[in-house]
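Why predict the complex rather than its parts? Because the way molecules touch one another can change local conformation, and only a joint prediction can capture that. The input here totals 860 residues.
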Amino acid sequence: MVCDAVGITCEDIAEDSYDASHPAFVSSVSENRHMASVRTPDPNPGWISEIALDETRSRVPILYVEAVPVRLNSLGQVDLVGVLLRGSAATGQLTRTLVSGRVMHGESVREALLRNLEKDLGPTAFPQLPASIVPFTVAEYFPLPGVAPLYDSRQHAVALAYVVPVSGECIPRQDALELTWLTPEDAASDDVLAEMEGGRGSLLREALAFMGALS
Amino acid sequence: MVCDAVGITCEDIAEDSYDASHPAFVSSVSENRHMASVRTPDPNPGWISEIALDETRSRVPILYVEAVPVRLNSLGQVDLVGVLLRGSAATGQLTRTLVSGRVMHGESVREALLRNLEKDLGPTAFPQLPASIVPFTVAEYFPLPGVAPLYDSRQHAVALAYVVPVSGECIPRQDALELTWLTPEDAASDDVLAEMEGGRGSLLREALAFMGALS
Amino acid sequence: MVCDAVGITCEDIAEDSYDASHPAFVSSVSENRHMASVRTPDPNPGWISEIALDETRSRVPILYVEAVPVRLNSLGQVDLVGVLLRGSAATGQLTRTLVSGRVMHGESVREALLRNLEKDLGPTAFPQLPASIVPFTVAEYFPLPGVAPLYDSRQHAVALAYVVPVSGECIPRQDALELTWLTPEDAASDDVLAEMEGGRGSLLREALAFMGALS
Amino acid sequence: MVCDAVGITCEDIAEDSYDASHPAFVSSVSENRHMASVRTPDPNPGWISEIALDETRSRVPILYVEAVPVRLNSLGQVDLVGVLLRGSAATGQLTRTLVSGRVMHGESVREALLRNLEKDLGPTAFPQLPASIVPFTVAEYFPLPGVAPLYDSRQHAVALAYVVPVSGECIPRQDALELTWLTPEDAASDDVLAEMEGGRGSLLREALAFMGALS
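Output of the joint prediction:
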């Protein structure tokens, strides 16, 4: 697949063509199917075509979830922070990013969070989703650089951002080339922050502050 | 205006036909206009037609903000909770609700919150928006009753919900018939909760718990 | 041991005579010992006599931690809430309570939380302490009933209250007769709330609201 | 007054010799007096002698409140952050600090917060205490430098830290030489952080992150 031929990044495609055999996805779809029998004739409500998604992106802010995977010690203190190293077809550069993905129509925020964690960290990461749905911050991405710290050329996106402890082995799928575990000190370094896609360095710093790990 | 002729409630129209002379809206539009010169030819980016909005509602979850207006004493304790008494053209019934509205394309969450507070409480309410953008909860509305505590027949909506102290006089506009100030005890009563639109009684109880005022 | 002969509850004693072989305690003590070599001659800084504790209780508010143990599903939603059934020597009655204990001198809040979780739930509970030290609420207990919702006849206490997921087997120690796992609905019932010691029913409801599980 | 002759800083004295005509203090005392008629013969329960306070400081962690005063714009975004420039008799140096003070016996956290804001910012600051008692962080000060980021030579202290918008004129009292209003960028600078007393630079950065203002 030649992602950059159509001017979109691989993330776009990965995000919307997730594995339909995924348990969270199946449960979401079956829930939607139940809804569909009453209200919505669309047999596949969460998924929409790239054209429809582009049109939608020009109309409303798009809701995302983002996650900072962490390894905690027995006292709950953060030992390591997971950062994805991902190839961007749009720029040809390797950039660092966080677990991130769209909330589908009919999908709950928790389902979207779990689905995107499994998409980016693999099926054996064993993430422990938080007991409260309140995010550590709300990240607002605007399509023009410089308007706000966070930037997404594709869209106006609003992301609910969570810190998620993972206890298992993380095996990123194809589109995420590598997961790097950094100490809090390294994660807060200017070098790492400068490599974060779309200004997510500020988001990573807020996550570290939330954990009391911003040196 | 005959709202119900087209099967939508008055809230839909009020929400999308806000006063274009509103300062927040003007700043948002001017910001958008600046964006528009580079990317978006649409001269009125936040606003979309009812048809486009209906289509969009079938594709993605729609981002909302909601606010519980409160009167605080000098110690920050809640004296009174503001609840709107609003007529629903869809059902013909009077129901209670919270300050609520959509986040427009190109609009920040804070701008949407201030705009909707002014839309529902008038220009002299003097709301004090919180220093942190983290909501007290994330409210998820699904279009089928019974799936979740919160329900919105029009759409899958996700609302960032805030407690907002107001110090001025609240003069609800046309579509909100009345603003009622309730004590925390009355706001938590089963009677009030049963009258709350779309299951927002649970949301109001979470707001009271957040303020330590759930008896 | 005849707790009630001296007019204090078993909790007092249990709280201050914790197992010195406990890893958290050992690390705390060794840290204190290091401090002691420079500043403090007291060989056992966290522990103080009952007489000194009583005197201290008349002088300053005493800092506590409290925890609501929960079983979460893979989406982070609460399945079950753990409530302790505990004998109070002061009243002779069985009452329900939460995991609770004092923060010792020289002990961090996280160490106190882990130590009290292990004291009340045993060594195989495997609690996952939260990534953020921010509590879901701050609970204030005053020594006179009726002043505030929360009441502690022994003292003015201020507790940092946390929701803590546990994944292992909980085996309460001697002073806690039983750990009961309740559904969120049962935990919010008026019956359970009336049985909670010192007004902790309101605290439990705030925990449920924090988890979005207050029906 | 020669503070340093007895090895304590001026803050100690200022903290415990607050104006007895202060409304918050009066209300606290009258509440305590009411308690006193039933349980406590001490006519002045919150106040304790320096000797008793020193003894208490060796026994239990001492509960504090801290506040970062801020000027917010109409959208709730932080324009300016207030930092106190304060003389330390112990070191002879001028250092920067935050609004800070002990929670007295019988005093609520909110009362302590309001009292200390008025002590440090004067009677016309008009602070708006937050609707929720949940702090943005819990700050732990240990008496040995290097154990934790935060340090207090006098004691093990645990502070509940809040961001508090102020709308009036701030006139610091004698012991606080000056209140400086800084932009978020300046407040986050390495220069300012290095001047913060007891490691409070990390606390100030967490406050900025909480407000989404950490550049």
